[in-house]
Amino acid sequence: MAAVILLISVTGAYRVVIASLNLLQVTRDHYVAGSISAARLERARNVPYVDLVLLAENGVVVDEFGLPSATGRFRRSTTVSLNAPSSGCTSLLVVTEIRDPRTKVFDSSENVTGVYTEYDSPP
Q1: d(CA 72, CA 84)
Q2: CB-CB neighbours of 37 under 10 Å
Q3: What confidence tens digit (pLDDT) does each residue in 77-92 have?
């Protein structure tokens, strides 16, 4: 009887540990996806305004550092919209999707948006 109670207790503790590790991985993946998206917008700050359209991409699979990788766990898309939200502004929407490690399907994402304006050159 004691062995059965011990087995039930150990099984319950094992399930709690596994659930905690899964939650930790999901939380980490969302943090990394947000960081990848934010890094893409930060990169746009260093690109001349007229070249922002060159940052557009669709479904590039990247690793946790935002570098293209066929085996990456993230998929990044950057949408560049000219004259949005108003004339003279360019908005960038970066969507980083997260691949579920068990199903290998991209099932959740983090989105970041930035608006850039061309400033007049100093005299």
Answers
A1: 31
A2: 26
A3: 999 998 888 888 899 9
